[in-house]
Specification:
This protein has 257 residues and is of the alpha/beta class. The chain has helices at 45-53, 75-78, 99-110, 121-132, 151-163, 181-198, 209-214, 233-237, 241-256; strands at 2-11, 19-29, 34-38, 60-65, 68-69, 82-85, 169-173, 202-205, 218-223, 226-232. The chain has a domain at 2-92 and 169-256: Rossmann fold. The strands form 2 sheets. The chain has a 6-stranded mixed beta sheet with strand order 6-7-8-3-9-10, sandwiched between helices. Strands 2-1-4-5 form a 4-stranded antiparallel beta sheet, with helices on one face. Bound molecules: adenosine-5'-triphosphate (ATP) and magnesium ion.
Length: 257
């Protein structure tokens, strides 16, 4: 489904601040796989998402989604089939518009209709039912301005927006990091449900190692713009949070040396 072939990206090239955010990175993700992505601050995790979503263009290498080479495709075109959710619950939604208006805009964008066009009654019902499926009662708050919802509720609506039309790929960049522990847990549960109900190919960045091991089917660890650990199956099942922390700390020590 997703093939990243030797992708590199350098910031501030040919200056004293030159920094390689992605270094010859290769990654293949099969359809329906759910990868969790871990690694220290500055490891290149968000940069990887930036080149996949089109927010940034890599300096070399190729990004293929399905049979399509999307390396140079503009971000707004990729947004129709790549969903992305950020740490900040306000990002990606219009706070002064209602829950329903935000969902309608996301729906129109995904089916490539003008956001000015009016959805049919059936479409409005579909959007409401998609939100109701989260079992949070948010369908009763369709007319509430999204800026008035709690962080957890906003992230739940954002998840609904990103999955109204099944995306080819869902990118979650620390999407529970700004939430209190209970809201974070419930948004993670919701993520698990939405991803498995719809069999969505997903990459989720997290600093919470226990979530990284509990969710999904495979875990990759990044350091200095490369993948330094890639584990799935029984090997992953046997790994403890302590093992991963030890690995992270040994990488950090190597970098410091
Ligand atoms: N716009 C930019 N200009 C210059 N350097 C950047 C820019 N964006 C990222 N970097 C650098 O690229 C490296 C990778 O950053 P990135 O944001 O991908 O890390 P990350 O793994 O997501 O870290 P975190 O866990 O802190 O979110 C870092 O050293 C960072 O300073
Ligand atoms: Mg980041």
């Amino acid at each position: 489904m997703l093939n990243i072939e030797s992708v590199s990206m350098v910031f501030n090239k040919n200056t004293p601040d030159e920094h390689k955010a992605l270094d010859n990175l290769c990654l293949s993700v099969a359809e329906g796989e759910f990868l969790t992505v871990i690694g220290g601050n500055g490891a290149g995790k968000s940069s990887l998402f930036n080149v996949i979503s089109g927010k940034m263009v890599c300096d070399s290498g190729n990004i293929l989604l399905g049979n399509e080479n999307i390396t140079f495709m503009p971000e707004h075109k990729r947004a129709a089939f790549i969903g992305r959710i950020f740490q900040d619950p306000m990002k990606g939604t219009a706070p002064n518009l209602t829950v329903e208006e935000n969902l309608i805009i996301a729906y129109m964008r995904n089916i490539k209709r003008s956001i000015m066009s009016v959805p049919s009654k059936n479409e409005k019902n579909y959007i409401r039912e998609h939100l109701a499926a989260l079992n949070l009662g948010l369908e009763k708050r369709m007319n509430t301005k999204i800026g008035l919802l709690s962080g957890g509720q906003r992230q739940a609506v954002t998840l609904a927006m990103a999955t109204l039309i099944k995306p080819k790929l869902l990118l979650l960049d620390e999407h529970t990091a700004a939430l209190d522990p209970l809201s974070a847990d419930s948004v993670l549960e919701l993520t698990k449900k939405i991803v498995s109900d719809n069999n969505i190919t997903t990459l989720m960045i997290t600093h919470n190692i226990s979530s990284a091991l509990a969710l999904g089917t495979r875990t990759i660890m990044m350091d200095s713009g490369s993948i330094v650990l890639d584990i799935g199956g029984s090997e992953r099942n046997e790994l403890s949070v302590h093992d991963v922390l030890r690995e992270l700390s040994s990488i950090k020590n190597r970098t410091v040396e």
